[in-house]
UniProtKB/TrEMBL annotation:
It catalyses: Hydrolysis of terminal non-reducing alpha-L-arabinofuranoside residues in alpha-L-arabinosides. The chain holds residues 45 to 676 of 854 of the full protein. Its EC number is 3.2.1.55. This is non-reducing end alpha-L-arabinofuranosidase. Keywords: Hydrolase, Signal. The keyword Ribosomal protein does not apply. Belongs to the glycosyl hydrolase 51 family.
Amino acid sequence: SVSVDTAATGPTIDPSMYGVFYEDINRAADGGLYAELVQNRSFEYSPTDNRSYTGLTSWTSSATAGGSGTAATVDDGARLGERNRTYLRLALTNPTGGTFGVSNSGYNTGIPLEAGKTYDFSVWARTDSTTGTPLTVTLRDAARTTAYASPVSVAVAGDTWRKYTGTFVASASTTSGRLAVEAGGTGTLRLDMISLFPRDTFKDRPNGLRKDLADKIAALHPGFVRFPGGCLVNTGSMDSYDAANAYPRARSYQWKDTIGPVEQRATNANFWGYNQSYGLGYYEYFQFAEDIGAQPVPVLPALVTGCGQNRATVDDALLQRHIQDALDLIEFANGPVTNEWGAKRAAMGHPAPFGLKRIAIGNEENLPDQYFANFVKFEAAIKAAHPDVTVISNSGPDDMGTTFDRLWDLNKAHGTAMLDEHYYNSPDWFLQNNKRYDTYDRQGPKVFLGEYASLDNKLRNSLAEAAYMTGLERNADVVKMASYAPLLSNIDYVQWKPDMIWFDNNASWGSTSYEVQKLFMNNVGNQVVPSTATGSVAQAKPITGAIGLSTWATAARFDDVTVTGADGGQLFADDFSGDASRWTPLAGRGSWSVQNGEYVQSDTGAQDTLVRAGDVSWHDYDLHLKATKTAG
Ligand code: AHR
């Protein structure tokens, strides 16, 4: 029974308490939330992003009958821009007919197209042919047997870069289309930024977001969006910032590289091992946050890299430059159009301020003293120029025996307004730590739980998270913000799991953790009402009686599992975790072996104890058993 003390009042809950943490991990952006359908559109992929890459990754040469030529990626003085340097050079040798060019295979299984939908094509091009170069652009299958739309014709004229556009209406649906750009005639044709967007983006914004994914995030009604990382913000942050060193590879993740006309933006080696375009950049993040009614919470690097790198900068000039970047970012978000950075925001289409109220410095830096020394410099500069903006420090969790504990102590002593905690743990940990914030110092820094998740995508994990969130909410006077992490994962490019929303190139689906987050975010109370619960918690039932013949039986939260009288048959056990290492203790008992990912015991004998409580780390998981013999 639950007793509610209606006479008493607990802490006030901020309407923006629950939000999302967006990071470009698991290819969340290109091939995901960013609606661009062409992979490596600007030919900037390079082995420095990923050893398997070339400038032509995801492109193949293609020709019609009689057409020929060569295709190469080039970075020379003819480039489209200082930050977008590499382009495609086609040497065309089609004097008597035919066309030659390239085709793009998109992400996952190919370019997804839906019958009846409109797609916007664009390309930047120049030609040295004095008569011009005709381009034929098609949407087709890889084998060239099926066309998915009428071709688009483009006449390229002149040897200076110009943008050409065209529109397709798909006549059939596919998940494995190709975009082919083929040219007739002779001469040198230069192409860059070959792009295809569905017209139907979130809020119909050009250079916009994939609708199904953005809709799923919007349906959460998050109070804030933390972006762009995560470890990603530490990417190359201690590398020299000078233009001479910064390009052709941008190296460090700099927000200024991500704004302005899209064809002038850099791409970068993503922390998670692939190339990321900056098509989805800071302007788009702010716009998205505004579109879904969430506060933007950008994270900037503190020049003390965590995430396994453990280095701190000793370059004060570089540090000052990053501090200036933080100040400029606040002007970009909030400044008047007369300000240099406010003017850039206005030029991109948003003269009104975005209303930035919070900014976070750093991510998981485990050199506490070095981080803190930098943090206070950022904080002092921001507070002096923008006293209304809360500067969030980085901490890691308190009192968990890690180096982050010291960061908490430093921040407490300093009087830091808010700290960003992160933790990923087992469901049991979340259940056992429901009271974590009950004892936090009410006078100390407020908590931004910027990253947390129970370590799997099963119902049990989400229930543990939901239970834990009641503890966050009970302590809403201390825990001011919380976001599950990570938000997005492309099923074919998984660097990290569990994740909240999964997708491939044409579909997306929320995990049970997504449903939990949605439930909480769509039902934020305004005040905690103290309550107590009494009574015993029902235990899940073990398997009793006969185990099904070739049908899995389930023991939830089992203790000892004893099987009696299964002599002569085979007994299969699995926890469906997909993690064979969890079964090591089991494999050591009796004659168990692994077959096809399941544990099998032949001729089990009259009685066998399979596992005992506490034996195995997967005690948190359900155990499933089935037999090949009905006896026993
Ligand atoms: O959420 C995935 C990663 O986990 C983040 O990039 C990092 O901050 C944490 O370690």
